[in-house]
Amino acid sequence: MPQALALQMDTGGPPAEPADEGAWGRRAPEALRLTPTWDLRFNRIREIPPGAFRKLRNLNTLLLNNNQIKSLPAGAFEDLENLKYLYLYKNEVQAIDRQAFQGLSSLEQLYLHFNQIETLDPESFQHLPKLERLRLDSNALHCDCEILWLADLLKAYARSGNAQAAATCEYPRRIQGRSVATITPEELDCGLTSEPQDADVTLGNTVFFTCRAEGNPKPEIIWLRNK
Question: Which domains does the chain have, with CATH numbers?
Answer without folding.
Answer: 1-140 (3.80.10.10)
